[in-house]
């Protein structure tokens, strides 16, 4: 069991290292963002019940993406973290160091949700859809069901009024 966990740890660290070696930052388009300490955005999800607004911290660099929501003891309802990927990639998430249950919302390049998956605190099992995504949103456990968020719903984040099209933190699919 320890060997399996060590092997998994090495694989995750290798992926994180290689993704950090890309000539494009995760938020892409030549962005010079170096820290996500003060970055935040709003995501709008169109569900069968209507629009859901989420207030999200942005994990814009590899360091912030590696840390994610580790160590958090609580997360306000309707808030979470966005992991943007530009270009899209097939991420694997795990819940090492995570103290609270989370819902992971995987968003395709066309803005549709490919899957909503549950993350259990401390679980080292990789969580992935197996397909490239434009981003992953983490919110509190069972919030996706509470808000009616499911696969096929549409997501956008950032400034989607036309002014944000050149903003690397905006994702405004048609």
Tags for this entry?
174 residues; alpha+beta; 7-stranded mixed β-sheet; 7 strands; disordered N terminus
Can you describe this structure?
This protein has 174 residues and is of the alpha+beta class. The protein is 17% helix and 30% strand. The chain is built from three helices and seven strands; from the N terminus they run H-E-E-H-E-E-E-E-H-E. Strand 4 and strand 5 (113-119) form a beta hairpin. The chain is globular, with a radius of gyration of 15 Å.
State which percent range the strand residues make up. 25-35%
* Major beta sheet, strand line-up: 5-4-6-3-2-1-7
Rounded to an integer in angstroms, the radius of gyration calculated over CA atoms is 15 Å
Low-confidence stretches: 1-36
Order of helices and strands: HEEHEEEEHE
Most strands sheet: 7 strands, mixed
Helix/strand-derived category reads alpha+beta
Helix content: 10-25%
Shape: globular
Terminal CA distance reads: 46 Å
Give a quick precis of the structure.
This protein is α+β, with helices and mostly antiparallel strands and 174 residues long. It is built from three helices and seven strands; from the N terminus they run αββαββββαβ.
């Amino acid at each position: 069991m320890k060997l399996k966990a060590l092997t998994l740890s090495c694989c995750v660290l290798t992926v994180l290292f290689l993704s950090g070696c890309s000539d494009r930052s995760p938020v892409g388009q030549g962005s010079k963002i170096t820290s996500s300490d003060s970055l935040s955005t709003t995501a709008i999800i169109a569900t069968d019940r209507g629009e859901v607004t989420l207030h999200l911290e942005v994990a814009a660099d590899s360091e912030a993406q590696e840390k994610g929501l580790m160590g958090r003891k609580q997360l306000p309802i309707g808030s979470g973290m966005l992991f943007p990927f530009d270009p899209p990639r097939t991420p694997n998430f795990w819940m090492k160091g995570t103290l609270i249950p989370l819902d992971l919302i995987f968003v395709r390049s066309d803005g549709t949700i490919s899957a909503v998956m549950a993350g259990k605190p401390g679980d080292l099992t990789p969580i992935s859809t197996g397909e490239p995504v434009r981003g992953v949103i983490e919110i509190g456990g069972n919030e996706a069901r509470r808000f009616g968020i499911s696969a096929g719903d549409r997501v956008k984040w950032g400034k989607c009024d036309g002014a944000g099209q050149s903003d690397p933190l905006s994702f405004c699919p048609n």
